[in-house]
């Protein structure tokens, strides 16, 4: 076990909270069957993407030079997705905070987007301390980044980008499972799948991936998870 990593903050809503943070499967209800021996579960959903590239997991405390590392990630996005995402920088800063501030509220370009650009240009987190008066939006953005990235990996697919569980590997699948608030990352194991964990995947967090069902351009499949 890597002691520099602590458990990631959950992306999905806490138990007892009525307002959902995300709506990846829209209003679809879960259709789950569990075997009598409790060793496998069948659930319907779709495969949205395949992981192409991952960074190492982010440690419990972001290094002072992390904004410089973020610019390297941003360059990778430009390299992997040059013709796929028009607003790559917008998608990037939203992804590294899972498109939510540290209060789990939706973000705004004029607030968090501006803070991201200031954060990157500052280069070192220590520089923020010297700012008089210090910028609350800038600090709030840095806190949001640390909360979202902690213990996770930044990943890229052929279509977009996201945040994956620490055990994710290239080739893992980003899946939308009916009834799940956030995407799930699965790994093929023969004819079955292994659940790796929840993930953030930019562009499908509000039900966009399931729109193809009503348009008949996508079809549900049944996943057997062991």
Task: Tell me what the structure shows.
It is a single chain. Helices cover about 25% and strands about 20% of the residues. By secondary structure, the chain is α+β, with helices and mostly antiparallel strands. The strands form two sheets. Strands 1, 2, 6, 7, 8 and 10 form a six-stranded antiparallel β-sheet that branches. A four-stranded antiparallel β-sheet has the order 3-4-5-9, covered by helices on one side. Strand 4 and strand 5 form a beta hairpin. Helix 3 packs across helix 4. The longest helix is centred in the first third of the chain and has 15 residues.
Residue-averaged pLDDT, rounded? 84
Q: Which structural category fits the helices and strands?
A: alpha+beta
Quaternary arrangement of the chains shown?
single chain
Low-confidence stretches: none
**What's the gyration radius in Å?**
18 Å
Strand residue content: 15-25%
Largest sheet: 6 strands, antiparallel
Please, how many helices?
5
N→C terminal distance:
23 Å
What is the number of beta strands? 10
Brief account:
The chain is an alpha+beta fold and 226 residues long.
What's the SSE blueprint?
Layout: E1 32-34, E2 41-50, E3 53-54, H1 66-80, H2 88-96, H3 109-122, H4 136-149, E4 153-156, E5 161-164, E6 173-177, E7 184-189, E8 192-198, E9 200-201, H5 211-214, E10 221-225
Antiparallel strand pairs: 1-2, 2-6, 2-10, 3-4, 4-5, 5-9, 6-7, 7-8
Helix pairs in contact: 1-3, 3-4
